[in-house]
Amino acid sequence: MIEVEAKVRISNPSLIRERARKLGEYLGKQGKIDDYYSLENNGYPKKSLRIRKLNGFYQINFKQRLKSKSKVDSKNEVEFKASNIKDFLALIHEFGFKKWIRKEKHSEIYEIKNNLHIELNDVRGLGWFAEVECLVSNQSEVENARKEVLKAIKQLGLNKKNIVKSGYTKMLWDKRH
Fold first, then answer.
1. Residue 118 CB: number of other CB atoms within 10 A?
2. pTM of the prediction?
């Protein structure tokens, strides 16, 4: 899967929430605690694994950033489930992976249409963001997905000039170092 997304820092989540409800169906709230592991020990890592605890299982995720022509990111995403996290952690530790950061966010999720979502994210230590994400299955769909993401950002009353290019982990890292 390829994830095409953009996020904008927001100061008035109530207003954006009201606009999101007009654009799409409210799917609910979700708390997400993500631990990130990397082989790199110095500085901000270029690559890392994310482990997210969900209901009764863990979701392992790796994203590879694709070339971007705009502020809208596209990433090749590999994701799978693990039910035995102790063995998985023992395996990655054996290969030299170390935990380097934790990200906690509370999300309100809205579906505009199939594979196009808005998340209002309250990220611990960073504040509120509106994130628009579109999932596509191949590279030929990325440009259309970028247009859909930018259209939704505009419909939320946000300016594409205010898109935040840094990921949450990079912002958290920069805040701590």
1. 29
2. 0.92
Dump the DSSP string for 104-139: EEEEEEEEEETTEEEEEEEETTTEEEEEEEEEESSG
pLDDT, tens digit (0-9, with 9 covering 90-100), for 13-42:
999 999 999 999 999 999 999 999 999 988
CATH assignment of 2-176?
A: 2.40.320.10
- C-alpha dihedral sign at 123, 127, 131, 137: negative
CA 19 remoteness from chain centre: 21
pLDDT of residue 69: 67
Specify which residues 110 forms β-bridges with. Answer: 26, 118
Closest CA to 115 of 145, 93, 73: 145
Please return the burial class of 166, using the count of CB atoms within 10 Å of its CB with bins 0-12, 13-18 and 19+.
exposed
